[in-house]
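Design job #97: recover the sequence.
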């Protein structure tokens, strides 16, 4: 079984000489296709092989930085709103406590009301 397989592999992998003029035809066809392809614009040449990767990486960095800054400012605004709400709640609580204290004092010391 292995003898037969080896013979088939050797036969399949034997070197075969190309037909006469094969290399010239391939080179002529490649030159023809290369000439028929449109030339890239200047900005496309800049983005060539590695330029497009650098441009994408730069755009990603800029968008991440912008997002981070916007997120920071939004959190800061939320903090300010929370602070304002807390201050309002403390003022309301203070006025209610003051009212309750005065009511208790009036009940404990009725003679102060007569003055």
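Job complete. Output follows.
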């Amino acid at each position: 079984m292995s003898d037969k397989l080896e013979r088939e592999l050797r036969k399949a992998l034997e070197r075969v000489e190309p037909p006469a003029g094969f290399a010239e035809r391939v080179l002529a066809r490649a030159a023809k296709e290369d000439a028929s392809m449109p030339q890239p614009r200047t900005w496309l040449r800049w983005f060539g092989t590695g330029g497009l990767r650098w441009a994408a990486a730069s755009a990603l960095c800029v968008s991440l930085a912008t997002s981070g800054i916007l997120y920071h400012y939004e959190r800061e605004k939320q903090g300010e709103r929370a602070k304002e709400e807390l201050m309002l709640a403390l003022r309301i609580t203070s006025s209610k406590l003051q009212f309750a204290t005065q009511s208790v004092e009036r009940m404990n010391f009725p003679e102060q009301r007569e003055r």
